[in-house]
Amino acid sequence: MIYLDNAATTQMKPPQVVEAVVKALTSMGNASRGAHEEALQASRMVYNTRDMLAKLFGCKRTDHVAFTCNSTEALNIAISGILNRGDHVITTHMEHNSVLRPLYRHQTENEGSLSFVRCDEFGSPLYEEFETLIRPDTRAIVCTHASNLTGNVVDLERVGKIAHAHGLLLIVDASQTAGVVPIDMEKMNIDILCFTGHKGLMAPQGTGGLCLREGIELRPFKVGGSGVQSYCKTQPSEYPTRLEAGTLNGHGIAGLHAALQFINTTGIDTIARHEHALMDRFYQAVKEIPGVTVYGDFRLPVRTAVVTLNVRDYDSAAVADALVQDYGIATRAGAHCAPLMHESLGTTEQGAVRFSFAWFNTEADVDAAIAAVREIAE
What we know:
- The chain is of the alpha/beta class.
- Helix content is 39%, strand content 14%.
- The chain has a seven-stranded mixed β-sheet with strand order 2-8-7-6-5-3-4, sandwiched between helices.
- Helix 6 links the parallel strand 5 and strand 6.
- Helix 2 crosses helix 8 and helix 3 runs parallel beside helix 4.
- The longest helix is centred in the first third of the chain and has 21 residues.
- The chain is globular and about 70 Å long.
- The protein starts with a strand and ends with a helix.
- The model has no long low-confidence stretch (mean pLDDT 96).
């Protein structure tokens, strides 16, 4: 199998990630739930992973990094924990349902209101619309860092300046960029950064988190066991305990710790160059194939390693099925949980086929995919 569905999850992980998870399964206790060596070992590993994430994302305080199961949970915590009844929110047509559905729930259950920044013909946001949509009751801008459908990266520094100039919060979905695109919360004026571990960070599924700018106060999404202040009837107010009720996925976090070590040693820039080279090799070839339509803005200086396309008027699911059954190539077809982006691109009915490349892919993988697309188009 040639695996080109890395925007959904990176299948190939660094060997040390697998080793770390196996070791944790056989030796790790429960972090913050005891004073014996196994529990202390888990606590140290969890803290070190927080610290590495804080440094990676430019988060000033290690204790303002909270672990979650994935970016969807992180976004739910952020959106439900910061928005008040009646708040107006600005978002974009680029968003994944992990942003859209919590915002729709805010709209229906919390009497909130939403405004959407539209996209241009290439699927990039119309930046001038952010400022025009701001109202007296606007509380936050919630947006993705990169589209999971087109690979287009949003200029967060530009959006962050607009947000903070008007006293708004900026909440960012970094699902597609964490680990492969540099992120600096301070420079980009990000107030809450939500991320997942199983994509660009090359960690196990079931890992993720959110990073908070100092001074941000989030209401807990869930309450329960914390390992501290056990006689208190409410969830402890201190971060990160405030947001981490229940036992953490320590085994997964051990894998995330090893993945972060691999990324730090290899270098994000090195990883990004490799992935971008594979993406560009594929894009330059398939865009010339008669009957192939490619979506996204490939003029952008920074983008993720995604090429999304359609072949003639074929249903995207049929193309993806042919790729996997006839050529052994795994891709993703359909709506990609990004309904408004498909509306913007005019692909609501057909869907689209997404090829997404990662560190462990090779030029041979790319060339096989090019040949397959060419044959299907012919």
